[in-house]
Design brief:
Length: 121
């Protein structure tokens, strides 16, 4: 049995946070759906990140880490691309979660060679 990567658990939690963050920051409409481009960005990115984190529990492929890096990069760039830098909470949320995703994914990719060699022994 292959060992689980603790980073995948953190990625899943980040995904859950991104899903609920529009409601946490009060960015929802009268129908309780996310309101505004930043809120929908967090919600949709969170769905993808949580799905990737959950998929990583069952599979041990490393393509999920590359997608996490891309999503993390998108989250870091999103405040400027989607022009919501005037909302400090949204901007910091995007920067912190994006950087965390990148760091965790790179960590897994850098340590995968060590994991592969220990599995062969």
């Amino acid at each position: 049995m292959k060992p689980r990567r603790w980073q995948d658990h953190i990625v899943f939690i980040i995904g859950l946070w991104l899903i609920v963050s529009p409601w946490t920051f009060g960015a929802y409409g009268s129908d309780s759906l996310p309101a505004g481009v930043p809120a929908w960005n967090f919600f949709l990115c969170g769905l993808i990140v949580a799905a990737l984190g959950g998929a990583a529990y069952a599979s041990y492929d490393f393509w999920e880490e590359w997608v996490d890096i891309l999503l993390g990069g998108w989250l870091v760039a999103a405040p400027w691309v989607l022009q919501f830098t005037e909302h400090a909470l949204f901007t910091w949320n995007a920067l912190i979660t994006g950087l965390l995703l990148i760091v965790l994914a790179v960590w897994v990719l850098l340590t995968r060679d060590a994991t592969k060699s220990s599995e062969r022994d």
